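Reopening this one. Same input as before:
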Amino acid sequence: MRPRFTVLAALATGIGLGLAGCGHQPAVTSHARQEGLATVSASQADPASAWAEGYCAASGGLVRTLATLPSVDPSTPQLATRTSGELLASVVEGLNRTSSALGKLGPSPVAGGDASRNAAIAQLHGIRARADDVRQRLGSSTDPEAAKTALRDARTSLDELDRLDLLRGLNDVPQLAAAASRIPACQDLVKQPR
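Same output, byte for byte:
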């Protein structure tokens, strides 16, 4: 299972065009299911399912952020630089929100879940730090060559984000993988078109 970040390819293209011009906490909901006449929430029925659902909801927040990123305007080097910085600011905010939501999830009810979550948070923090560095360089860039380098680095940051697989941690823990396979919020992340 890997969330698909559709918009990133188009944005990376916009950043590439800009380079050519230079000489770029979601609510955790519980899906109820019918069992006979009684409705039982995921958390009442299975703690692993409830935890996986929260994990997927947090990850889905990042997917939603990436789906609504501002566009890069490659019409001039200055606009490409400015709009790429705005895009990266949105990416940084989305990564912060997702890290926070994952951190607030609570302890995993199964062995291995906490380690997987912590690894995902560490990966998000690393990407966020690199994207924020590029964003700051874009904002302070006055030299065309420095701007061109920062735009290349912005594209690299988006490529790194596109390779991110937040659901790998769930797949590494058999109980969580099985739970995720039954949860619509997790399955929606897998179905995102590329």
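So the earlier flakiness isn't reproducible anymore. For the record, DSSP finds nine helices and two strands in the chain.
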